[in-house]
Design goal:
The complex is a heterodimer. In chain A, the strands form two sheets. In chain A, strands 1-2-3-5-7-8 form a six-stranded mixed sheet, with helices on both faces. Chain A is an alpha/beta fold. Chain B contains four helices and five strands. In chain B, about 35% of the residues are buried. Chain B is of the alpha+beta class. The chains are: A alpha/beta, B alpha+beta. At the A-B interface, α2 and α3 of A face α1, α2 and α4 of B.
Chain lengths: ~120, ~150
């Protein structure tokens, strides 16, 4: 079942599939204006005990370092308690991961299903 | 002299970023730049203007930012001007030389901020920065592919 998160209810969808929490921003542009909402949503998820997370970027056309910083902050909050993967990064979003060289160390998958399966494995 | 170009004026609010990016991206599509390169233009532009708003103007609204887009025969040039606190030269030199640092396998060492300048340097084909007489001017350049005709 889909739920909406936080003060910006139309911005980020979440759902749980077989023990993996899927976080799907519906914002096309994750820039410095949107980064606080992203961080708040992730923080809420982690505080609610969801530490096996997929960030589904399939609906996102653009992401900058502010939003990436929010994601990294949440990754640190998960620490060794869980697992994290990214799905659907493409175009300018993939370019961000490549230029920061995080594409070499993050778990990037084409689909939500593949990312969730990697976390369950 | 540029064959064509336009100048965009905006005030220092993060909410302006998306409109600016959409406008410049549309101009890029009038050039021979590949989609992959246009992604780099958009990223460098957004990072640069975010940097001005957050650091140059320390978040103060209603401060002026000017973005000039110029199309030359062989390249696209973006020039971003502001009247805020300049980027420290040593910071710019360090990132321009090396780009963003390579992350380790341990996420606890990954940066949560301060990635902007490195990204700008890595995303642009060429970069020049000239703070002078109260105006900071960041020039960014992307060359067209060799077989591209303007």
């Amino acid at each position: 079942m889909r739920e909406n998160v936080g003060a910006a209810p139309d911005l980020i969808d979440t759902r749980t599939e077989d023990g993996v929490r899927i976080v799907s921003p519906r914002i096309k542009r994750l820039d410095a204006a949107a980064a606080p909402a992203v961080k708040a949503a992730f923080t809420r998820e982690i505080e609610a005990g969801h530490t096996r997370l997929v960030l589904d970027l399939g609906q996102v056309d653009f992401m900058d370092s502010s939003a990436l910083g929010a994601v990294v902050s949440c990754l640190k909050a998960i620490g060794g308690r869980g697992d994290f993967a990214v799905s659907g990064a493409k175009g300018a979003v993939m370019k961000l991961f490549q230029l920061t060289r995080l594409d070499r160390v993050l778990k990037l998958h084409d689909t939500v299903e593949a990312a969730a399966a990697a976390i369950r494995a | 002299m540029a064959k064509r170009g336009l100048t965009l004026f905006l005030d220092s609010r993060l909410e302006q970023l998306s409109l600016l990016a959409v406008a410049v991206r549309a101009v890029c599509h009038e050039t021979p730049l590949a989609d992959d390169t246009i992604d780099r233009v958009e990223l460098a532009l957004v990072e640069a203007v975010t940097n001005v708003i957050k650091h140059g103007y320390a978040g103060a609204p209603d401060q002026p930012i000017t973005v000039r887009v110029e199309l030359f025969d062989d390249r696209l040039v973006l020039t971003i001007e502001d009247q805020g606190t300049p980027i420290p030269p040593e910071l710019l030199e360090a990132v321009a030389a090396s780009g963003p640092p390579a992350p380790t396998l341990d996420p606890s060492t990954w940066p949560e901020s301060g990635m902007g300048l490195g990204l700008i340097a890595a995303a642009a084909d060429a970069l020049a920065y000239a703070p002078s007489a109260g105006t900071n001017r960041l020039g960014l350049e992307w060359r067209y592919p060799p077989d591209g005709a303007a």
